[in-house]
Amino acid sequence: MVAQWPVQAGHFAVSLEPMSTELPLSPTPRTTVTRGRNRMVSDRSELHRFLVDGLVAHIGVTVGDHPLVLPAAYAVDASGPDAGGTLYVHGSVAAGWLRQAQGATVCVTVTEVDGLVAGRSAFHHSMNYRSAVVIGAARVVDDETERQHALDLIVDHMIPGRSATLRPSTRKELAATAVLAIPLAEASMKARAGDPVDEPEDVAAGVWGGYVPLARVAGEPVSATDSHSDVPLDVVRRAEGLLASAGWVGSSAAG
Hints:
The chain has 255 residues and is an alpha+beta fold.
């Protein structure tokens, strides 16, 4: 049986902090970083912060005789009912990949590219990035309350506060939508930032080395052609927040 998660005044209270701070970030061999351990992130709260910041997940499943990796909107609840918290994805009940994922072990990855690293040799070209891998058994969310909670989280992951402004989902919409929950217990994270790491003789040769910072940049919200032009505050704040967060990449320390 899964644990219960906090409820406040009829709504779910979502926390970025895990219910247990003792759970290591990479608790099993299949999620333990073995290469590039200097870039391993060991703080589980850093994983949660990164998953909140990311926008697109890729979920890997086995469909028939072949693997399949698909992009998906997602959301996380660090105090969710699964071990280590819960990562939610959703899709059509008619989707073959989703049917295959039910009860199976899946792999979910989230990656943000923060820079293109130009080394002084081809070997030392790289990328500045943050990347998380989550492995676990996908659970179908059957409980109506949890499913609505998960769908609200996914909407709010894109635009915080948006779900509270929308009409309730219809029975038809809910019947056509399936939600999968993946435990966050088995996870790993790596990150790289800053300058290339070059051989001393390549540095001495005078070839330029450095990196090109990359960041998500949001433009001003564009009203639909059949909508009024009064953009809601939650949408404006999201666009402004994405624009403001783009400034940190260029000041990353070397790693």
